[in-house]
Specification:
13 helices, mainly alpha, globular
C-alpha cells in the first residue's frame, strides 16, 4: 500500500518537472523553427524513441482497441502539440500557463456530462481551489499580456482535448496496460508527422520537408527533449498515473507546472514573490483534496 502511494507521488512529481519545462523547450526551439516544424519534430522524435516498444506492443493490443489508441494519440498529443506551438509563438507565457490549468476542469466537466462519472463535493472543491491558486499566481505577477488573447483559443481547445482523452483512457482503456497506451498511441501520430516532415509542405505555410529544415544543432536538441522526455517518457508515466490514481488527480499535474518555472527563475538568481508561496499552498491543498477523494 505504502509503496503504491509513494509511486503515485513519484510519478506526479516527475511529470510536473518534465511538463513544466516544456514551455521553455517550445519557446527556445521556435527561435529557429516554425510552430508546425517544432510540433512535427517533437512527435517524430517521440515516435522514433518508442518505436521498438510500439511495434512489439502493437501485436499485443486487442484489435478492437487500436482505433481508440489512435484517437487517444491525436487527442492527447498530436493535435495539442500543434495548437500549443501556434499559441506560444505569440501568446504571453503567463496566460498560456493559466489556460493550460483548465485541463482538470475539463476532465471533471466532460467526465460528468458525457461519461456519466460521479464527482464528489471534495473532488470538485479540490479542482476549483487548485485552479484559483493558479489564477492568483499569475495575476500576482502583473505582466499578463492580452494583446494576442485570440491565440488563447488554441490552448482552450487543446485542454478540452486533454480532458476528453483522459476520460476515454479512464473509461475504455482500463484493461490496456499503460505502457501499451503510451507507445502505440504515439506510433500512430508519429507516422503522420514523419510523413509530413519527409514530404513537406509549402514553406510559407510554416512547414517544410526535412531537406529544407534548418538543422541548427542547439535548437534541434530542444525538439529532441520535447519528443523523448516531454512526450515519449511522459506519456507512459501519465497513463500509468491515471490507472493507479484517478483521471482527476493525474490532470492536477497542470496546476503544479507553473512552479517549475518559478524554481528555474530561482536557480538563475531571480527573486520569488511571497504571493507565490500562498498560491502554492492553495494549489497543494487542491491536489490533496482530489487525491483524498478517491
Amino acid at each position: 500500500m505504502y509503496a503504491s502511494k509513494a509511486w503515485v507521488w513519484i510519478l506526479f512529481v516527475f511529470l510536473t518537472i518534465l511538463w513544466g519545462c516544456s514551455y521553455f523547450f517550445m519557446k527556445a526551439g521556435m527561435e529557429v523553427y516554425s510552430p508546425l516544424q517544432m510540433a512535427a519534430m517533437r512527435i517524430a522524435f517521440a515516435g522514433v524513441a518508442l518505436l521498438p516498444w510500439s511495434i512489439w506492443h502493437l501485436r499485443k493490443v486487442p484489435k478492437n482497441k487500436i482505433g481508440l489508441l489512435l484517437l487517444s494519440g491525436f487527442l492527447g498529443n498530436g493535435i495539442p502539440a500543434v495548437l500549443f506551438c501556434l499559441a506560444l509563438k505569440g501568446l504571453d507565457t503567463n496566460l498560456g500557463g493559466i489556460l493550460n490549468a483548465l485541463t482538470p476542469l475539463w476532465v471533471l466537466v466532460i467526465g460528468v456530462l458525457f461519461f456519466h462519472k460521479n464527482s464528489t463535493i471534495q473532488k470538485t472543491l479540490g479542482v476549483l481551489v487548485g485552479f484559483a491558486g493558479v489564477i492568483i499566481l499569475f495575476l500576482s505577477k502583473g505582466n499578463i499580456n492580452l494583446h494576442n488573447v485570440e491565440l488563447s483559443l488554441f490552448i482552450v481547445v487543446a485542454t478540452m482535448m486533454y480532458g476528453l482523452n483522459i476520460n476515454i483512457v479512464d473509461t475504455y482503456l482500463k484493461e490496456v496496460p499503460s505502457l501499451y497506451i503510451g507507445t502505440v498511441s504515439t506510433l500512430g501520430i508519429a507516422v503522420v508527422y514523419i510523413l509530413l516532415l519527409v514530404i513537406g509542405m509549402d514553406n510559407s505555410a510554416g512547414t517544410a520537408s526535412i531537406s529544407l529544415i534548418q538543422w541548427n544543432e542547439r535548437h534541434v536538441w530542444f525538439a529532441v527533449a520535447l519528443g523523448v522526455l516531454n512526450t515519449a517518457l511522459s506519456n507512459v508515466m501519465f497513463y500509468q498515473l491515471v490507472k493507479i490514481s484517478s483521471a482527476s488527480f493525474a490532470s492536477m499535474v497542470t496546476y503544479i507546472m507553473p512552479f517549475v518555472t518559478i524554481l528555474i527563475a530561482l536557480v538563475i538568481g531571480e527573486t520569488i514573490p511571497k504571493e507565490s508561496l500562498l498560491c502554492l499552498a492553495l494549489i497543494l491543498a487542491g491536489v490533496f483534496l482530489v487525491r483524498k477523494s478517491k
